[in-house]
Amino acid sequence: MSAAQLIARAKSYLPPERVQFVQTALAYATDAHKDQKRKSGEQFIEHPVATATYLANIHLDSVTLAAALLHDVVEDTEVTKDELESAFGADVARLVDGVTKLNRLDLLAEDAPQTNGAAPATPTAEAARIASLRKMLVAMASDIRVVLIKLADRLHNMRTLKFLSEERQQRIARETLDIYAPLAHRLGMADVKWQLEDESFKYLLPRQYKSVSRLISRKRAEREKHTKDAVSALQEALKQAGIDCSISGRPKHLYSTYQKLQRYQSRGRKFDEIYDLIAVRVIAETTADCYACLGTVHQMWRPVPGEFDDYIANPKDNLYQSLHTSVIGPQGYPLEVQIRTAEMHRIAEDGVAAHWTYKEGDGDDVDSQFDEKLTWLKQLLEWQREMAGDEEYLDSVKTDILRDQVFVYTPAGDVIDMPSGSTSLDFAYRIHTDLGHNTVGALVNGKMMPLNTQLHNGDTVEIMKATATRGPSLDWLNSDLGYLATASAKAKVRHWYRRQEREANIQRGHDLLSRELKRLDVRVSLQKLSEKLGYQDETELAEEIGTGQLAIGKVLEGVTRNFPQEPVNGTGAQIPAELRRQERTGLVVMGAPNMLTRVARCCSPVYGDEIAGYITRGRGVTVHRANCANMRSTEDHDRLVPVAWGHADSMYPARLIVQAYDRVGLLRDITNYVSAEHVNIHSMSSHEDPTTNTCTVTLTVYTNGVEQLSRVFTRLETVEGVSSVNRASEGEPVNTH
User: Fold this and answer.
1) In what order do the strands lie in the sheet with 694-703?
2) Does the annotation mark 76 as catalytic?
3) Annotated catalytic, 566?
């Protein structure tokens, strides 16, 4: 992007005096950055010019363009905020200050000019990043233009990410995918969203990125032909129907295709069955024409059941409007058709920016309809007052603001917007903290439903409150049970537990951790585990678990992440770092990565267990759990070899013993609950004891590691009649009849 292009674009819609204001800001920024270069070797001024040009392309006001040009001068030059305010006014200085806080948060993550060799202190970089991001979000709540500048800034940084180190590429891409792309989606800026997603996808999952690219390219010519045929046929049909409109092919985005492919694979469907790989977009003149076009499309081609959405009658919360339908198009190929007006298309692409009608010098706000849809910004300010911790605040924003929303009703008819996936218990906490703490039941659409029931658009929810104060259950913080989906509700539960007695919390945490490790048959030193997770001792770790600050699933992640990298036998051999970085699958024998391996049936290790290998004549290496009795008793130490887990995509068997009261439907419920975790059951048997009306169910399941295995345990413990679930240890008799 050149400065000339920026000014030419500004002249196309701004009055001359405001164009001069932008030119003055351009000259100021050029002088301030004159001795600076980026990692790519280009002049640093190219970055703010590119940022401002994107905003000019969507017709933002001159104040925003000037702030975009100047957004790095306070951060990266000797210019102060006061000097900026004196030269360009309070609005420009305030916008630059809002973005500067965000750039300061990035520290190592932003592409700062190479004029200052001093690096920020690594231990405080993450805390500073989160704290400054919080400040930016609060500033955004006061003036949305702060985040519009930042999104344009991040978009250009992502396009030049290849010039940074791999570690910085990963960190910036992850933050972009987690924060900025969802933020663009929440603001309705589809054009920015898909570009940020595809750029992040390229660096975070390079193998999958190349794979999806190949899949799409493989039949590109064929798809383009079918798209052209569909466009021609539809144009002719609409012309005969007297409907004036324009039709074009719709570009495919790699990350959204990857997400759809993942969903289809989980349902056992193929890539070629994705219905919108071939897509056309119809731009009509009026809303009535949109519906007339839809009728013509459905007369021409057979609609796919369940693949129609009317976002014109029911706009999304970011005001997105369009008709979506999938049909069986020419030659039997699935085809998606989107139909909207030109104004709807502008809003779909630019979102909040399309509504930003700043009149030069007046500072009018966005139109009233969109202003009503931005009420979620007020939540940012409320959390700013309620939440002391920066990380807690950011988690709330990520889960409660940046997700898609559903709209539910109170019994009085008031509409409450909740993040997608929210439960009736989340709803209770949204209404009032005390109501959430004392919830005992919920009526959804007039029917009594479990508290972990997920809510859908249009649901009416009535909360039943305990007659006496009782407080929340610690189980509500267990993500495997699914009671709470919103971070704000979880924060309120954790805050309640923090007020309870410390000793009780420590004991509760010890009990929970011991039970989890025991039932998984995982043997680790609690002191060593505490140190690995960043705690001083096991008491501090137990307190965090007991108050709900640390989920048990995070502890299991720590076991999986840290302990497979310990010495796997008495030789003291470690897994080389370069081997851990490789994308491998299954088991790896140190020094001989291609050697045949198999999992020992005596102890059935799963991903995350500490393991050791034993060379078996003619059958490669047999992998045991390190504490397996057969390994401890062996005297042939020359045949012991160090082994390590490869990539966690492989599935490993584990034998489970379920003790339960015998009843009709028990086995059905057990299999349903295990299947809900997407775990394959390899075998199952049961043994009944008629004298006590109990039974023992033994099943072998294939999981991808101890974390998933723990979730299976949690699900099985909620089955009616189940008294205990344990993993079969080595040497333990297991019923096989």
Assistant:
1) 680-689, 694-703, 652-661, 722-727
2) yes
3) no
